[in-house]
C-alpha cells in the first residue's frame, strides 16, 4: 500500500489469468472439498481439472440407482458423462489416476474403471447369470437351480483412454455404441434385441448408475461435437 495526499490506498489486486476451457479460480476457492481435490491432484503432478471430473464421474457410477433428480417434469438420471479434451501429453491419464484415492468404494457391487469399446460391452458390464427360482428335475444337474442371463449389478464406472477408438467403433456398420451411450445418459433401457436368444442383452431403464469418462485429442473431440443430428 502507499499514501497520496495523506489518504491510505491499497495496491490493486493481482489479476488472475483465466484460461478458456479450464475451471476458473473462483470455483476452486468456493468450497474446501474442491481445493482438497485439486491439492490431491497437484501432489501427484496431475491436472486438478481432470481429477475433479474423474472424481465426479466415478461418483455418479457409485450412486444408488434409485437416487434421481426431480426436474419438475419427471425424474432425471444422475448419470454423468465427461469428455476430457487435451493434446497428447496433456495429463489426461495422470489426472484420472489421481482421483482413485479420493473416494471410498461403496458397499455394493461396483465395477470400477472398466474399458468399453462396444455398445454390447457396456450392456454386458451389468449382466451375469441369475437364478430363476426353478430347479432341474432330471439328469446330472438334478436339484440345481436353473439360471439365465440377467442383470447382476447396478453400478459401473467406464474410463476410455483414447476417444479415437470409440469413434472408430461407433462408425462401423451395425454398431450400437452411440445409441447405447445416448440411452445410458438418460438411464434408458440398454438392449440388443437383434441377437440370438442366448446372446440377447437387456438392462432396464433406471435400474443402473453409470459414469463414463473419455479422453479425446482435440480433432477427435470435434468429430463428436459435429454429430448434432443424432443427439450425441
Question: How would you summarize what this structure contains?
Answer:
The protein has 232 residues and is α/β, with parallel strands linked by helices.
Topology (elements, then pairings):
Layout lengths: L1 E3 L2 E3 L15 H4 L3 H11 L5 H15 L6 E2 L4 E2 L3 E6 L6 H7 L11 E5 L4 H6 L2 E9 L9 E7 L3 E6 L2 H8 L6 H9 L4 E3 L8 E3 L5 E8 L1 H8 L7
Parallel strand pairs: 5-12, 6-9, 9-12
Antiparallel strand pairs: 1-2, 3-4, 7-8, 10-11
Helix pairs in contact: 2-3, 3-4
Characteristics:
232 residues; 12 strands; alpha/beta; globular
Explain this structure:
By secondary structure, the protein is of the alpha/beta class. 29% of the residues lie in helices and 25% in strands. The chain is built from eight helices and twelve strands. Strands 5-12-9-6 form a four-stranded parallel beta sheet, with helices on both faces. It has a two-stranded antiparallel ribbon with strand order 1-2. A two-stranded antiparallel ribbon has the order 3-4. A hairpin with a 2-residue loop joins strand 1 (2-4) and strand 2. Helix 2 (32-42) packs across helix 3 (48-62) and helix 3 crosses helix 4. The mean pLDDT is 85.
Q: How many strand elements?
A: 12
- The SS-based structural class is alpha/beta
Number of helices: 8
Mean pLDDT: 85
Give the helices and strands as they follow along the chain: EEHHHEEEHEHEEEHHEEEH
- How much of the sequence lies in strands comes to 15-25%
Task: Give the % helix.
Answer: 25-40%
The separation of the N and C termini measures 54 Å
CA radius of gyration is 23 Å
